[in-house]
Amino acid sequence: MDYKLYETLNRLPGLFAIAATMIFGIIIIFTFIVRIFQFPHLRQKYWQYDNTQSIPTRILKTTVFLLLAAGLLGVISYNVYKMKNDPPKLLVTVERSKEPPSMLVCKSDDMTFITVRYYDSFNSFVNNPKQNLDLSGDFKLFQRESDSSCTFFNSTSSLMTIDNPGGFYLLGFTKILKKVLNGMSGNASIISIYIGDTNNETDWSLPMPQGNKFSDVGFLLASSSGIFQYTETWHKALNGINGITYRGFQINSIGNFEFEGVSVDDNSMQPTIWIGLIAPTTVITQVEKPPLTLADLLSNVGGYLSVWAIFGFLFGVRKANPFGFVSGFIFINQDRAKLRKELDRMKNERSSKLSNLEKGEEDNTTETNGLSNQSAELRNLLAKYYVDMDFYEHAVKTPDV
Fold first, then answer.
1. Kind and range of the H or E element at 392?
2. Burial letters 282-301, b for 16+ CB under 10 A, else e
3. Fewer beta carbons within 10 angstroms: which end of the chain, N or C?
4. Furthest CA-CA distance within the chain
5. What is the mean pLDDT of residues 334-359?
6. Do 229 and 371 lie in a common domain?
7. What is the distance between the alpha carbons of residues 130 and 117, in angstroms, rounded to a whole number?
């Protein structure tokens, strides 16, 4: 599944909810169809039209219903359009940096790249310069168009691991004898360092390496020793199978510093130019989120459905069904037996009350008959307008389900 669709559907909980809803809906529809064809009284119930409202009320009711239904379709269509076409939302977080960047180091012809050392922090370098990790073997020669004076450190293929966030990289260069270029002597010592992320969209062979719109490549140009600090940002995009994280870099100069007397090992050959790079301890992460998720869609639709309360206010609601779908379509025998048991109990209680009344005066008999007639009228009124008595009538009058 596409990662953007996966996020839009609220990941595994959303997929589970969709699957459960589909299974539940299929079961209900299948049960309804089977029961409709199995029992004639259900076909009569749902196909027989009985409306106690006047024609003007029916016309107004139908008009309002169609308007609300059109509005519901409009709300669903609008939200689905936003889910598909709106730009993603951005969530900004701060995370710890634990992955080294890739580096491309290029130099002028009068320079030699000597060493690269890594420290846990700048303080570690200051306190004990000899406790470091030598990365010189991880920098490989790199051919960049017509320039063969570059070396490349690929973070994705390096065995380097960082236990603590941040760190300090120290790159050492030394000058060689002056050369005469085109009959002119010069000493143009130029060092260019590019910092970026190695992915399929980053082209390191360009004069100015670059990635896509989310993968900025940091660049510094130096001719003398100095300390620089780079900042890193992550952009987690909504594409690919598991999502893609793009890394962007920017380099800022802290100032020119001289590293006289610095010794990172016991080698007598010491660089004459040092470039220090301070790595950040944290990175700012921009996380793309779907413009509208399945939960948002259901929430918006549910908010619109609350407007349908106006429909019930204007035209009333359907008759109450105290038995429900399960009693009428699924556990018919069980609920029918329970209902008849309750009716028998109520009948016995009523017979007991009538026996007590017969022992009284004759006027009580007349009053009892009047109350019985009123009860019958009330029952007919409730069955006509308020209470769905279909299951009751079926359970009492029909011996077999």
1. helix 390-397
2. ebebbbbebbbbbebbeebe
3. N
4. 141
5. 74
6. no
7. 9
Residues 174 and 285 in one domain: yes
Residues 63 and 315: their CA atoms lie apart, in Å, by 12
- Give the DSSP letter string of 303-338: HHHGGGHHHHHHH--PPB-SSHHIIIIISHHHHHHH
Ranges assigned E (strand) in 46-162 = 89-96, 102-107, 111-119, 133-134, 139-144, 147-153
Q: How far apart are CA 55 and CA 58, in angstroms?
A: 5
For residue range 69-127, list pLDDT tens digits in order. 999 999 999 999 988 888 888 889 888 887 788 899 998 887 888 888 888 888 888 88
What is the pLDDT, as a whole number, of residue 260?
64
Domain count of the chain? 2
244 inside domain = yes
Domain residue limits at 279: 94-289
Cα 321–326–327 angle (5° rounding)?
65
Does 269 score more than 60 pLDDT?
A: no
285/327 same-domain check: no
Catalogue the long-range contacts made by 3-12 (C-beta closer than 8 Å, 24 or more residues apart): 3/238, 3/239, 3/240, 3/241, 3/242, 3/243, 4/238, 4/239, 4/290, 7/238, 7/243, 7/289, 7/290, 7/293, 8/83, 8/290, 8/292, 8/293, 8/294, 9/293, 9/294, 10/293, 10/294, 10/295
Query: What is the average pLDDT across 361-388?
Result: 64
Q: Is 112 among the domain residues?
A: yes
Q: Around Cβ 369, how many Cβ atoms within 10 Å?
A: 10
pLDDT tens for 205-263 read 888 888 777 788 999 988 888 899 999 898 888 875 556 788 889 999 888 777 666 66
This prediction has a pTM of: 0.64
More confident of the two residues 179 and 71: 71
Instruction: Mark whether 180 and 247 lie in a shared domain.
Output: yes
- Size of the chain in residues: 401
* CA pair distance 242, 247, nearest whole angstrom: 16
Please say if the pLDDT value at position 366 is more than 60.
no
pLDDT at residue 179 in the model: 47
Same domain as 219, residue 100 = yes
